[in-house]
Amino acid sequence: MSNAEAQVVQEEIDLGMANKVIDKYINMKGALMPVLQEVQDAYGYLPEPCIHLISERLNVYLSQIYGVLTFYAQFHLEPRGKYIVRVCMGTACHVKGAGRIGDTLSELLGIGHAETTEDLKFTVEHVACIGACGMAPVIMVNEATYGSMSVQKMNEIVEKYRAMD
Ligand code: FES
Q1: Strand locations in 9-143, DSSP E?
Q2: Of 138, 165, 141, whose CA–CA distance to 150 is shortest?
Q3: Strands (DSSP E) along the chain, which ranges?
Q4: Which residue from 133, 139, 148, 149 has its CB within 8 A of the most atoms of ligand 1, so it is best to mutate?
């Protein structure tokens, strides 16, 4: 994304949802984490203008907020896809060909680990064991788990989600 495009995206952010979340916590101690979480839930990620708003309204330094955001992997500073595809790269999955599954997914979507397609439909994440080793290799799409993955199955799953809204 170019700087000009980033600027446009920023200007389009409606701060209404963020203000509502902050209103709920405004006089509470320890409000920062729940506010960050709920604002992220509302937007799907934490847009920069929201972070500035949180800093001003909760009276917390920006540097402190960014410290929290970079420490916890659960926070995202970039827009994410509607479908988060997690490819397990844990040992059991790796032994059973997770690498090939990950490569196939990258070829199909044109993106790699931690990237999002331009249409904001898919985000790909390579993750450690997701606790379903008996079904290795495993992927997840949002909350749905798919085991015994093959290249063929990966194709079908991507097609299925592409066809969905
Ligand atoms: S290693 Fe993939 S689910 Fe455990």
Answers
A1: 83-88, 115-116, 122-127, 139-141
A2: 138
A3: 83-88, 115-116, 122-127, 139-141, 144-146
A4: 133
| pTM of the shown model | 0.77
- Cβ partners under 8 Å of residue 120, min gap 6: 79, 80, 81, 82
Per-residue confidence band for 42, with pLDDT thresholds at 50, 70 and 90: very high
What is the C-alpha separation between 5 and 79, in angstroms, rounded?
Answer: 13
Break the chain down into helix, strand, coil percent, rounded to 5: 50, 10, 35
Does the pLDDT at position 135 exceed 80? Answer: yes
Q: pLDDT at residue 9 above 60?
A: no
Enumerate residues 6+ apart whose C-beta is below 8 A from 11.
none
Candidate from 130, 139, 140, 148 with most ligand 1 atoms within 8 A of CB, to mutate: 130
